[in-house]
Design goal:
The complex is a heterodimer of chains A (287) and B (162). Chain A has 287 residues and is an alpha+beta fold. In chain A, 35% of the residues lie in helices and 24% in strands. Chain B folds into 2 domains: 76 residues, Ubiquitin-like (UB roll), CATH 3.10.20.30; 68 residues, [2Fe-2S]-binding domain (DNA polymerase, domain 1, Orthogonal Bundle), CATH 1.10.150.120. Classes of the chains: A alpha+beta (287), B alpha+beta (162). At the A-B interface, strand 1, helix 2 and helix 6 of A face strand 4 of B.
Chain lengths: 287, 162
């Protein structure tokens, strides 16, 4: 195996392309090193991208944010402006692992590791985040929702990697929330999860909504019907009951030691309902 | 595999070493620099026995490549005491018998020190969440929490009952 600390994106792309399928990108390493040690992967080349310009930075980009691929969860949580604008994304990122894992683990890594139970992926989907991708054919932007392709699989091509995630400008009365269920209080993998992002008008009516669900299908996904049900409402009880039902119907979970299909269906609806309430309350506070 | 020259600062001292590309920072600290205070429990970032600071952030040294430490500052348990004078946390762990086998202790001390550097007066709950990534199979954690709180009180200049 070779280790290379790339100093610019072109260098990283060139080496990853040369390494073909044996090239791996290193940011926080909290998934990569575990997979190397367990011999699930056998890299010929590891390209460390943390020295690339901007990869360790959270930058205000227009009215939104550009979060570099190497930014760890702990740094996101320390950025008060970011937490105020995107509390759901921030809480998802900070739920991953222990304090030590928070010192390294990144949202981009969480996205590219492509676990169906990844915490930040539903939050980023609900936020309508975009991945900035570098590759042999230059830069391209792809919605985060279009990156996962199944457990452990992404739509990235060989030689491509994600340089940053971009979060859009936040309207005044808007907020988000992410909730997951785990059987303990810390350091576990989601049994089911839900992220909701809402925009309200001055009278408290939802004008735009996005709902994303995690750990209840082969990959996290946006539930457009659930989002549609929220628009034009003030989250009345019957609306939320419908949303829970829509989510329970749209998911396709598996039975495993963490939960049964029936249990996950029930829980994901409850989480979507609660995440919507939380996002709504946060959006109202931003008046 | 070719060797990689790494120049790093560990506990304030400059160290140069040559490592293999797939070597972890934990293996380099223990095997090449003789700093065996950091322990390997799981090797997968679950137990926290290898906790060190890397450029000021807590990390599991078993999930960092040694090559990544080039140009970085690393803090280990060996840098927690000042000469022969124990850090208040170390003294509190002795006073409260907050360890038995001791494998988890270096990692817990490094992690607890990072907490107290940032928050001089944490609640028990904050201590427990902060140390959730440091597993101890001997003590049941109660004595650890008491020791951290006692050290925090001592560092704030309050008297602390042992």
């Amino acid at each position: 195996m070779q280790y290379l600390r790339a100093s610019d994106a072109a260098e990283a792309v060139r080496h990853l392309a040369d390494a073909g399928g044996k090239g791996y990108v290193l940011a926080g390493g909290t998934d990569l090193l575990v997979q190397m040690k367990s011999r699930r992967i056998d890299p010929g080349l590891v390209v460390d991208i943390k020295a690339l310009p901007g990869t360790m930075e959270i930058v205000r980009d227009g009215g939104g944010y550009r979060i570099g691929a190497g930014v760890p969860g702990a740094a996101l949580g320390e950025d008060a402006d970011f937490v105020a604008d995107w509390p759901g994304v921030a809480e998802a990122a900070q739920l991953i692992g222990s304090t030590q894992i928070q010192g390294r683990a990144t949202m981009v890594g969480n996205l590219c590791n492509a676990s169906p139970a990844a915490d930040t992926v539903p939050a980023l989907m609900a936020a309508d985040a975009v991945a900035l991708i570098e590759g042999p054919d230059g830069q391209r932007k792809v919605k985060v929702a279009d990156i996962p392709a199944g457990p452990g699989k992404t739509t990235l091509k060989v030689g491509e990697f994600v340089l940053a995630v971009l979060l859009p400008e936040r309207p005044a009365l808007a907020s988000d929330a992410y909730l997951r269920f785990i059987p303990r209080t810390e350091m576990d993998i989601a049994v089911a999860s839900a992220a909701v992002s809402l925009t309200l008008d001055e009278d408290g009516t939802v004008t735009a909504a996005r709902v994303a669900l995690g750990a209840v299908a082969a990959m996290a996904y946006l539930d457009a019907k659930a989002a549609e049900r929220l628009v034009g409402t003030k989250l009345e009880d019957d609306v939320l009951a419908d949303v829970a039902q829509i989510c329970a119907a749209s998911c396709s979970p598996i039975d495993d030691k963490r939960g049964t299909v029936a249990y996950r269906r029930e829980v994901v609806g409850v989480l979507a309902k609660r995440a919507a309430r939380l996002a709504y309350a946060r959006a109202k506070e931003r008046t | 595999m070719t060797g990689i020259l790494v120049s790093t600062k560990v506990n304030g001292d400059v160290h140069d070493f040559v490592c293999t590309p797939d070597e972890t920072l934990l293996d380099a600290l223990r095997g090449r620099l003789g700093l065996t205070g950091s322990k390997e429990g799981c090797g997968t970032g679950d137990c926290g026995a290898c906790t060190v600071t890397l450029n000021g952030r807590l990390v599991c040294a078993c999930l960092v490549l040694a090559a990544e430490a080039d140009g970085a500052e690393v803090g280990t348990i060996e840098g927690v005491a000042t000469g022969d004078k124990l850090h208040p946390l170390q003294q509190a762990f002795i006073d409260h018998a907050a360890l038995q086998c001791g494998i988890c202790t270096p990692g817990i001390l490094v992690a607890a020190k990072a907490l107290l550097d940032k928050n001089q007066n944490p609640t028990d709950e904050e201590v427990r969440y902060w140390l959730a990534g440091n597993l101890c199979r001997c003590t049941g954690y109660d004595k650890i929490i008491k020791a951290v709180q006692s050290a925090a009180a001592a560092m704030r200049g309050e008297s602390h009952g042992v």
